Amino acid sequence: MRDVTIGQYYPSNSIVHRADPRFKLVIMLMFLVMVFFCDSFFSFGFLTFFVILTIALSRVPPLKVLKGLKMIIIVVIITTVLMMIFYTDGDGKPLAEWGIFHIYLNGIYASIKLAWRLMLLVLMPTLLTLTSTPTELCDGLESLLSPLKKLRFPVHELALIMSIALRLVPTLIEETDKIMNAQKARGAKFESKNPFKKIKAMLPVLIPLFVSSFRRADDLADAMDSRCYRGAKGRTRMNKLHFHVGDVLAVLLWSAVFVCILFLNYNWLGWEFIAVLGV
Amino acid sequence: MISVQKLSYVYSPKTPFTTQALFDVNMRIEDGDFFGIIGSTGAGKSTLVSHFNALTRVQKNSGTVIVDDMDLSAKKPDLNRLRAKVGMVFQYPEHQLFDDTVEKDVRFGPKNLGASADEQRALAKQAIELVGLDYGAVAERSPFELSGGQKRRVALAGVIAMKPQILILDEPTAGLDPVGKREIMELIVRIKAVCPTVVMISHNMDEIASYCNRIAVMSRGRVIGVFTPRELFGSRELLADCDVKLPLVTEIAARLCDGGAEIAHDILTEDELLDAIEKAVKHA
Ligand SMILES: Nc1ncnc2c1ncn2[C@@H]1O[C@H](COP(=O)(O)OP(=O)(O)OP(=O)(O)O)[C@@H](O)[C@H]1O
Ligand SMILES: [Mg+2]
User: Fold this and answer.
1) Around Cβ A106, how many Cβ atoms within 10 Å?
2) How many angstroms separate the alpha carbon of residue B48 from the centre of ligand 1?
3) pLDDT attached to residue B58
4) How far are the Cα atoms of A81, A199, A274, B170 from residue A92, in angstroms, in the given order?
5) How confident is the model at residue A115 (pLDDT cuts 50, 70, 90)?
6) Do B55 and A207 touch (CB under 8 A)?
7) For ligand 1, atom 1, which residue shows the shortest CA distance?
8) What is the pLDDT of residue A275?
């Protein structure tokens, strides 16, 4: 059970770790949009260079980051293969053909770009969760969404629910572990192949887990009540988020990357060298 | 018999969170022992005992654990036979109750071991009565509507019903009031009549001193030594070395002794203390 990596934070003291979570989230959002603007191999390469730079700066072992790709590798392979054999290019001649399947040169290019795009889309969020704790991300999100408070949207409550949920995930895993061990000690087996039997075998774990979760929720509510918690109104924070020059510079840098990517793909000024690079 | 040789254990190996919980642990628990394990929090007591019924598996090249004729460091020990032989009661065992009646919950263990319905019922009845509950009154009640102390007894019954030869208890009296603590300890003594070997982790030196015949002292993942209660609580140097507090009765005896009374300083139980004081008073 402990292998579940939901909070997969990798502790370190790099600049990426220390950066303000709000700025990281903004950069993240920009990055996701950017990936969809990339169209040429050169622009993919350009963006990938900055991703690698960020990974290097974060001092997280590259293998850890690549592990994030493990979940989607199957999806990537299937979509790439499908794309390759079904891509139809009106102008070109197919390189190979078997019945309804055919491979065009442009089809190969398009499927490589698709795979590349999918991998970039997973790498950065993985890096984000490796370098920021769930609490930081929650705080960052709350702060970014705070303008919505004007519209009476319960931002604080939402952030609180989220951070309590995230905070309790490890506790819940630990509790599940404990109860499973206790039932295993009483001879319970959880390895059945039949899914119905499996669910039935899990009941001796799920019921105590629910009971203890309700008890914990009750206790938490009492603890918050007794500390006079009254919701968002008039509430100040203990750990205020502070941004530094570096955070602003990072956002500026990534904005510049964004502009470059736009130029690479649209070539508004009709520059010759971009036209050559932008296959 | 449980024999532990050169046992080490590392949690989350090869990650930034890795902690070594056990270092080169050697000890031997004989049949018929009431074996105590003490040590400060995080000393590795729970990690050690969870090896005894293979809930924690011995890691590669990290020593051996042998229970009677079973080698738990083997690739596939016979878990069914092992779990029938070694009963494990975790800290706050009442948190593992799940079924809608007490009787069904207690039957869970025997059922998993493949006992027939009649056997299950008979074993459950025996176990519930052994832990001092009225079978007729509680059997059909929901375990969730019992009191805390009663729940703990039901949980104990759930383990006893499997007829273990070795019973392992992780802080069985934690979180109970003094009367509840004493009742549980008396209960364990009664259980020991049918389950000859008992291993108990405890932070309560009074319990350790009055019930255990051998005590292992652990500190930071190592076993400092295995002593009889008289060796351990009778020697101030040893106590200081192991950073162990005195049981209340021994402390009283020691103070009286220091104050000039003719009382032995290695007294372990209340009865011994009372006898000694009576004698000393008569003498004076
Ligand atoms: N599941 C786990 N994952 C990682 N480390 C753990 C885990 N369980 C225990 N540890 C660590 O192993 C060490 C020994 O823990 P253990 O629970 O065996 O101590 P203990 O002697 O039983 O303490 P206590 O008296 O508090 O119950 C501690 O340093 C603890 O932090
Ligand atoms: Mg423990």
Assistant:
1) 14
2) 10
3) 94
4) 19, 54, 24, 74
5) very high
6) no
7) B11
8) 64
Distance between CA B20 and CA A279 in Å, rounded?
Answer: 55
C-alpha to C-alpha distance for A93 and B100, rounded to whole angstroms: 71
- Residues B265, B234: contact at Cβ < 8 Å? yes
Considering chain A, what percentage of its residues have pLDDT values greater than 70? Answer: 94
User: Side-chain half-sphere of A198: how many Cα atoms within 13 Å?
Assistant: 5
pLDDT digits (tens, 9 = 90+) for B58-80: 999 999 999 999 999 988 889 88
* Angle subtended by helix axes B148-160 and B178-192, to nearest 10: 10
Please report the atom of ligand 1 found closest to the CA of residue B43: 21
Q: Hey, are the CB atoms on A187 and B95 less than 8 Å from each other?
A: no
Measured from the Cβ of residue A274, the count of other Cβ atoms closer than 10 Å reads 18
State how far the alpha carbon of B208 is from the alpha carbons of B155, B159, B172, B183, in Å.
22, 22, 12, 15
d(CA A60, CA A63): 8
Q: Where are the alpha helices (DSSP H) in chain B?
A: 45-49, 79-85, 102-112, 117-130, 135-138, 148-160, 178-192, 205-211, 229-234, 236-242, 248-258, 270-283
3-class secondary structure per residue, A184-239: HHCCCCCCCCCHHHHHHHHHHHHHHHHHHHHHHHHHHHHHHHHCCCCCCCCCCCCC
Retrieve residue A150's tokens. Answer: 């004007």
ipTM of the complex: 0.89
Residue carrying the six token digits 């920021």? A132
Give every CB contact of residue A26 below 8 A, 6+ residues apart in sequence: A144, A251
Chain B residues with beta carbon closer than 8 angstroms to that of A183: 96, 108
CB distance A33 to A151 below 8 Å: no
Domain ranges within chain A, ordered by starting residue: 1-132+244-279
pLDDT tens-digit profile of B231-246?
999 888 888 888 888 8
Total residue count of chain B as it appears in this document: 284
Q: Is B13 in the pocket of ligand 1 (CB under 6 A)?
A: no
pLDDT over threshold 90, residue B202: yes
pTM above 0.80, yes or no: no
Angle at alpha carbon of residue B195, lines to B191 and B197, rounded to 5°: 110
Q: How does strand B19-29 pair with strand B166-170?
A: unpaired
